[in-house]
Amino acid sequence: MAFKSVEELLTLSQTENNPLWQAVLIDDITDRQVAESESIEKMNYLWGKMQDASKNYDGNQRSNSGLVGGDGEKMKVAIKNNATISGSFISEVISEALKMGECNACMKCIVAAPTAGSCGVLPSVLITIAKANKISDEEIVKSLYVSAGFGQVIATRASISGAEGGCQAEIGSASAMASAALVFLKGGTNEMMANACAMALKSLLGLVCDPVAGLVEIPCTKRNVIGAINAISCADMALAGITSKIPCDEVIDAMASVGNLMASSLKETGEGGLAGTPTAKEIVKRLNIKKD
Fold this sequence. Notes:
Elements: H1 6-15, H2 20-32, H3 36-55, H4 71-80, H5 88-105, H6 121-133, H7 137-157, H8 162-165, H9 171-185, H10 190-203, H11 220-239, H12 248-261, H13 278-287
């Protein structure tokens, strides 16, 4: 993809008189030299894999470390027992986000969106809203193009790598992409999508990447939940007409700057943050993980 800024993406959509999702689609088929049908087929495939990961979730399965597994099922039970505070929709999103993160930790098939560590954010909100509002696969696929467009700009101007930019670059980016997609599905304007993306990303600015024992399990799985709920709240704000006082591109640039300033111990090295706590160090000893 060729988009270097959100402003460029929005301007192209307006000048070409194409919906934003279609502007991203056209750019994809031009960049990869593929037919429109092939691009759409690939996006349908990814949407299908997201759904499969949810359907094939096994609440009895645990990761090899034993640190992750079963929490998605616990949320489902709580929902059935009407024991949640947040209501059915948000609770379902929480359950789906946990399930996706656990599938990743258990080495099952997931969709990197944009990374494996943040695989639960986008699918959890899309699967839940599709069920709740009976949204067609065609519309969901369009929303995936929207999320891809914003994600590409973030990747170009900043980073989607925890090792490079901290968890803000993974969960933050995923949350921003998901928020823009939700605005699209609710009929919001391009400007609303950009505002949702900006608000979601800046809400998680500075989030460190501190995996316990160097595994993408703790706190990664539960941070997918935070990214998903953040995406929903920012989408709702944007749809209500609330705007980000800092333009989306500037928020992305700020994320890049924060990532550059962040200590290496807070960027996927398994040294700082939660990874440096006494309990985390005991986990490392128990798992017999050797540091280089």
